[in-house]
Amino acid sequence: MTPRHARSLVLLLGTVLVASLFAALFLRTGASSINKPSIPYYDRIAYLTIPRRVEIQSVEGGAVNLNEIAFFIDTIGEWARIKGSSSPAIAVHLARLAGVLNQCPLLQDQTVVLFRESVEAITNDSKLSDGGFPIIIETNNGIAYRNSSGTNHLRSRQFNGFPHRDNAAAELGEMGLSINTSVETYGGLARSLRHVLAESVSNVHPSSELEWTLIAYSCYLDTFSWRTAVDDVVTLDDLVIALLQKPYERSPCLGTHKFYTLAFLYNVDQTHGLLGDKAAGLVKEEVIRVCRRLRSSQLPNGAWDSTWLGDTSADSAPPLSRGYAGECLRATGHILEALILIEQSIRPNDRQLLRATDYLMNALRGESSYSDFLTESTHAVRALVLLASDTSLHNRKVILNEFIPD
Questions:
Q1: CA–CA separation, 142 vs 155, rounded Å?
Q2: For the whole model, what pTM was predicted?
Q3: Confidence at residue 349, expressed as pLDDT on a 0 to 100 scale
Q4: Is residue 137 part of a domain?
Q5: Domain, as residue range, for 126
Q6: CATH of residue 177
């Protein structure tokens, strides 16, 4: 090879090498900017705040027997131990009920311990039972709870995952726990509730299951709009309108979870100005419409069943068997929880609420309410406890004193 040919070959190889380096640098930079934020998503979340307060509306003309309610709660505790209180689906229902137990000072010590442990369980993967499968896991954007249902990308094939998207975050928000509450992942990684919310807002979409997501966001989110991890712009109003458009028959528990979330949003918006004018108006309009239906759909025994929307139209929850005990317990407990978040001028009158209270008290006196419908009974008892309360949902340090900061 001549010197001239050698110089040409060196020049060619050098040119190819430089071009390859530029191409690699460009592709790597482009990929990272599109597929993964340059810094962890949870470090970019500056719009999370202390949980907002939710005010309970009083009911006049009747009193709830707290002694008997304490017995109901003790019974729930006994059946939870039998069925497995570390199961995510049971633990999250127990934790939600634990948030209001400061109103029941007559509980057995073992019951108080059980409910406190349920709050610990939903914030610590090692205390949840799912056959050895991880439940609270680290992601690129924060940490996430594995689901057994719902539509998010972490849906589990196992039965014992958390029932719904953002289920745990919503219940922790309703309890008033700090955004900095410790959450321990599978493998013992110490994180916080802030990381849970960071994962959620990074991948939420109007087509997601939103009933619990919107409760969590209304408790903690302090912004009207944000960008997801894939750079989509999402607004809180977009998600609220998406929930409003969702047919009731596609919402869990006979459609009552959609109504409860709308009542929760309405309550928070009334006291904190959460929503834009359009979304706030649509939520209020729907709450009024449903309350009007509930006035006429209540059964003679004080319950509501799967036809609680008052007709059998396309947007109504599909009827099961009218008068069926589990159906009525489920519908009435959830509906009563929602109605006590709505002022008297809109909801059914207090006489109707007291009839529903009487129905729940009678239903909970039967053992089958716990053996067959344990999670449904927690909603019923929680509604009864709140009816006896004249405080906000954040006055609960008796049960949760080690979780709620001073």
A1: 16
A2: 0.82
A3: 93
A4: yes
A5: 47-400
A6: 1.50.10
